[in-house]
Every structure is written in structure tokens, then in C-alpha cells.
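G., before I forget:
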Amino acid sequence: MADAQKIVDLNAYRRTTAQGLEATSTLAVEVTRETSNTKLTDLTDLYEKSDQENDFVSVVTSRVARLKQQLHEAKLGDNIDKDDAVSLLKAELPNLFALDDWSDGSSAVILALHHSLRNSKGIALSADQYFAVERAVGRLLQAPFLSFDNGLDVVDELKVAGFDTDPEEASILYGLLNE
Amino acid sequence: MSKAFLDTTIVADALLKRGEQHNNAVNALARYDEILLPVYAIKEFKRGPLRAYIWLHNKVITTGSWGNAVECIASIHTHKNLSSTAIKAVADFTSALEAPEGEDFSGLRSSSGGTFLQKQARIWLKTKIFGAWRKLNQRPFQKTQNLDCYALVAPKQKSSGIIDRGPYKCTLGNCCVQMQLLDDQEALKALEKICKGSEKQEMLKRAKVLRHIRRHPNSNIEENKCVTLGDLVFALQCPEGAVILTTNIVDHEPLSNALGKQAVLP
């Protein structure tokens, strides 16, 4: 009998196979839990899984989808909801950047988001800025391997929305290099 | 219709600087209907500020550390008295993302082999370099006054991560600025006169180059002489109806006035 024909219960088969597939099974349970909304998955639940257990795209999908959802839902709330969603995003950016497999284009977006929010010094974002941030997070979700040119497009959108995407050391650095 | 003919200082302010100088440049550009970007300004921009950013980017890769790369700046600019406070402020990079704590992130190294901070510096510098170059080819900039002797080649990233800046010198035969000067003897003489009458060293050097061009029309000038011409090229190439937009009004004004043209601040 061919191996495929022995599989009656796919989940049972997954549990009994190699570690790689075990991870897929665990992730599937988690996704079900999130979508069924019976218990809100805390972000720390996701971070408890090491990157070895979940492949990069799955991890990104889980983490970024959650952030995108928070930003989206907060739009229906008041200013505190929106500001809180932005704060949660800001706090998650180091963890996102730390993931190893982003393309340089996606890394550029994460970094630009960080400096944009940092340079805003905690002041609530304008509607345009909020939209630009939500859109940038959406691009990360859609394309974790964003080309560098497309990444620059997203950075430009943040600038157009009025963000300063450079680190504050940039001015001193320019002086050191050129004047 | 108002036209601005951009000097390299405005290009650098608009594309690489941040804060007030950046805002001034960008606001100034918005006041003109046409933004003319001479290729000579791109050449100077690439040879100057952009080259410095590319150098630092590559240094971040080869040293494997942002702090070490920044320390190297002082070893390159030995003629300048660089502020150690400024170097420390940049090296500390306190505005950077902080590396996450916890087992998963301890000793974190990026896929390119560097540290968390190094990766951020590399990505940010890459964003600045390629972002600036890309903008030169976008609206509102309209490239003008091509240089036949200069190959305008975009920086490229190699598989090693190093950015190859491409040629920043003229490599395609005889100097076309020299040709333009020889074609406009009146301008050549007027510029030579104003340079000769100046007390500034750089103007006197220009006067020598102009004299050489006038007296030896058949001998091609070298790259360093073309570089010496500098601001003078903007006065020569600025078309009728346009003004030279520059932050360096002190140097541009006498040159542009000598040819009946105008240089303005942003």
C-alpha cells in the first residue's frame, strides 16, 4: 500500500511524523484558535514558539497579521484605541526586525516605521500618518520578501504622510562625513 | 513659468539631510514650476556626499560593526578636527531599535553575519543611498545638461553586500564643459575676469583653468581641472529664464552675475 493511502486522519498523521510536520500541526491549532475567537491569543504565546519551530513566513504571518488587525480594529475606536495600537506596534518592531529572513526591502520598512514613530515622540498620529503606518504593516504582511525598490516606495509613503524616517543621529553623521 | 536650476548643495539638502535644511530645500523646490537638475550636479553629488555614504555603508560591512565603522571616519578625514562628542553620539546610535531580550535573541546575528545594530545601520545607509539615487530620476527633478564625457551609472550592490558606486569621474573622452566654454568665448572671458579679480583661492584656481582652456583650446583638460571649475559650470549652463538655486550664494552670485544670471537662496 502506498504511504499516502495509510493516512486516515491527517492531524493524527502529522502528530506521528517528523518534527518539521509537528510544527505545522501546532501552528494550525494556533491559527484556528485565533480565527475562532474563543480565546484571544496573546502575542507572548506566539513568541514562545522559537523560530526553529515555525518557518519564517508562518511566524511573520502570525505576528504581523495580529498587528495589522489591531491597527484596523482601533480605527473604529477612539483616539486612545488608535494610539494604543500604534504603541503596541512600536513595541513589537524590535522583535520583528530581529527575525532573520526579511528581505532588505522589508527590513527598510520596519526600520523606517521605527524611526517614524520614534521621531513622532509619542504624539498621536494624524489620519494620514495612521493610514500610512497601517498600509506599511499591510505590505509587510503581504510580502515579507519585499524587493528593495518596493520597500523604498513604502518608506516614501511614510515620508509623504509627514514622518521623519531617519534616525536622529543622521544630521550629525552628515556633518561628520561632509563638512 | 518659474524655473530653478539646482546646485549640488540643494540636491544634498533635499535628498540626504534631515530637519530644517531638508525642509528649506524641499519647500524651495515646491515654489518653482520646473526643477532643472544638471548632470554636473549629479556628478558632484555622487562624487561628494553620496560617495561618503557609500564608503560608510561598505565600512559597516567590512568592519562588521557600526561603532568601528564610525570610528573610521576620523581616520579618513585627518585634516579635519572632528568632534569626538559627535563621533560618540553617532557611534552610540541611541535612536536605534534595541535588541530584544530573551534566549531567542541572545547573541543575535543577522543573516549577513553582523550584529543587530550593524544590520540596522547597513539597512538605513542602503535606504539613504538608493533612495536618494532613485529620487534623482523622479519628479519634480528634470535632468538637463547631459555631460557627454560622463557615464551616469547608478550605484549597484554586489553579492558581497558592498555597494559599487560606479565611475564618479569623466571617462568618455574630451571634457564637454571645456567644449561649452570654448563655444562661448564671451562667457569664458567674463568668467575668467571675475575669477581673476577675486581674493578667494578657489576662484584664482578657476581663473588658471580658464586661462589654460583659452590658451590651449586643443589640449583636453584633466578631471581635477573639471572639478576645479565647480560652481562656474552652473553659471555657464543655467538656461535663460531660470535661476540657480543654491545655499552657497556667496560663491555662486559673482559667477552667475558675470553672465547676467541670478543665483538665489532656497
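Strands of chain B lie at 3-6, 34-38, 141-144, 156-157, 163-164, 242-245, 263-264. The first helix of chain B runs from residue 8 to 15.

More on Monday.
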